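During the no-cost extension, the postdoctoral fellow (Dr. R.K.) reprocessed legacy sequence entries with the updated structure-token encoder. One reprocessed record is reproduced below for audit purposes.
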Amino acid sequence: MLTVGRIGRPHGLDGSFYVVDPLPELPAKGGMVSGRRIVRRSGTTEHPILRLEGSATREDAEALRGTLLTVPREDAMLSQDEFWASDVEGCTVVSGDVEVGVVLRMNVLPSVEVLEVDRVDGTVLLVPLVRDCIRSIDLKARRIDIDLEFLGES
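Re-encoded structure tokens follow.
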């Protein structure tokens, strides 16, 4: 399962609620989260408001508060070479045979996504997700091979 947000405080009287920490993969109205159909979606991408099937009152929404919203990974409709940011967290980063560190998270910068890597020496390295820098990503082996020379390091 892929976590796409968490149920926050109620919104209005009809069972709607704010979504805390929403991910872009949060389905639209009619989609399914945590085994329930979304019957209302409003708000913004950053601050969505949802109502789920079976939730009709403010009390219903309050009872769900704090619950994780999840979708099955197979419903995420990714192509073969795509992955979720959470998929690379914890992956070992290497440059050939040299261990560089471990991915803490993926960040989105204005021009490119970067991997924030906790280096073996305790420093942090930002690795841009571009073909010249990333040699390979093997999610099953939890290993990402990068080109340190491209980053100006040896």
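The chain has a mean pLDDT of 89. DSSP finds two helices and twelve strands in the chain. The remaining legacy entries will be reprocessed before the final report is submitted.
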